[in-house]
Amino acid sequence: MTPDGARNLPVVFFVHGGAWRFGKRSQVNAKPAFLLANGFCFVSIDYRMLPQADVATQAADVEKVYAYIKANIAQHGGDPNRIVGMGHSAGCHLIALTGMRGELPGVAGLLLDDTRAYDLAALAKNGGMVRAYSRVFSDPSQWAALSPASYVDGRKHPPTFIAYSRADGRGEQSTAFAERLRASGTVVTLFDGSAYTHMSINRDFGEDDDALTIAALAFLKSTVG
């Protein structure tokens, strides 16, 4: 989505959540209207779901769509050099994973909204490998490859905004990931969203006077505005 007559506007590239099994690109709530009103293009994508596609394949889907958008967004008024990757829940994990391992080339920033799946081995150690996580990440031999934290050390990453809700473990996992990123020299904004549930931290984005929206917009403007 782009405003009429748009040219060279910054872009938000959104990946939806749904426990890696559900969801679709139309589930964006107030995000498009808000971002378009503030001078951004907005692109929301689909990717193949479990059990049709495993998480590694889903990440590859995100990378392929990002490459397509980067190659074509200028035709629709967007600036291919000012794209911020955003995701919620499972989509947050996929944006973090692909962004940290360098498979979103040229991405200007990452806006990560509420996941526990930054470091799967640490999650298992802390008793968090339960429910959806235990079903999706059932093979420990894949944990390192599918953990965004595995790709942090040794290089600086794009500016990253990390938000977490009050859902179990989100604050601890997000804070640990933020600290690891900062140690790499990456500019990190950590947003305490403990006033939100896991669902409302996504649903309320773009609503009037929403605290996360205000903080995220400041991040976006400082990064690509």
Question: Could you describe the 3D structure shown?
Answer:
- With 225 residues, the chain is α/β, with parallel strands linked by helices.
- It contains 8 helices and 6 strands.
- It has helices at residues 31-37, 55-72, 90-100, 120-125, 131-136, 170-183, 200-203, 211-224, and strands spanning 9-15, 41-45, 78-88, 109-113, 160-164, 188-192.
- It has a 6-stranded parallel beta sheet with strand order 2-1-3-4-5-6, sandwiched between helices.
- α1 links the parallel β1 and β2.
- α2 (55-72) crosses α3.
- The longest helix is centred in the N-terminal third of the chain and has 18 residues, at 55-72.
- The radius of gyration is 16 Å and the shape is globular.
- The two termini are 17 Å apart.
- The model has no long low-confidence stretch (mean pLDDT 96).
